[in-house]
Amino acid sequence: MTDVRVVVPGDIIDTRISAEDDGAETAVLRLGPGLVQTGEEISASAAGVLHNKEETHQWWVVSNRRRYVAAEGEPVVGVVVGRHGEGYRVDIGSAQDALLPLLAFEGATRRNKPNLTIGAVVYARVVVANSVMDPEIECYNSNTGKSEGYGELTGGFMFKCSLGLARHLIGAKAPVLNSLGAQIPFETAVGVNGRVWVNTESSETTVLVVNAIKNSEYLTAKQCKQMVKELLDKQ
Fold this sequence. Notes:
Helices cover 18% and strands 30% of the residues. It has 4 helices and 15 strands. Helix 2 (175-181) runs parallel beside helix 4. It is an alpha+beta fold. The relative contact order is 0.12. Strand 5 and strand 6 (58-62) form a beta hairpin.
């Protein structure tokens, strides 16, 4: 999408797939947060900036709402808050805790499965999200059977940020992460639920990375680069 479009609740969204697109006849439209379908019409249910990803036919609205609303396919960072016979209860910042099945990990079997403790941090993907069921997440890609970066996050530090900043950080061209990565080694996992996990070689570097990410929310790419340089000079 080339033009920025700001929508408010009730705005009708034209999500028609061009007949010229490959696979247009069998394409499945995927609606994310901030959009709702009523009959044949798709409209905005939240105020924010409309986004779409043409190759996967995904549409969603980015807004700085306070509470995360789970949507299928989204990456989230969660904290294990309970365990029951079939899996774990994970706090992902939504109205309901998410269910993480015991076997929803790469290579997990009934005899060989992770043993997560209360307070463990996990990077997962939402696989079930609707209005009548609690969200369900998995720590691997069930289509490939591989973890693809999902799983328990050990060590490091988790912090919260706005939902808008979190979605911006997930983009391939997040300037603050690119600027930091060019100067220092670190690991990060970003959830669209407004939680970020960072792991570095020292606590001082972790503080620097966290401050840089939090400070970047309203900065341009050029300003992010300068801000990172100034933080590194002070270290």
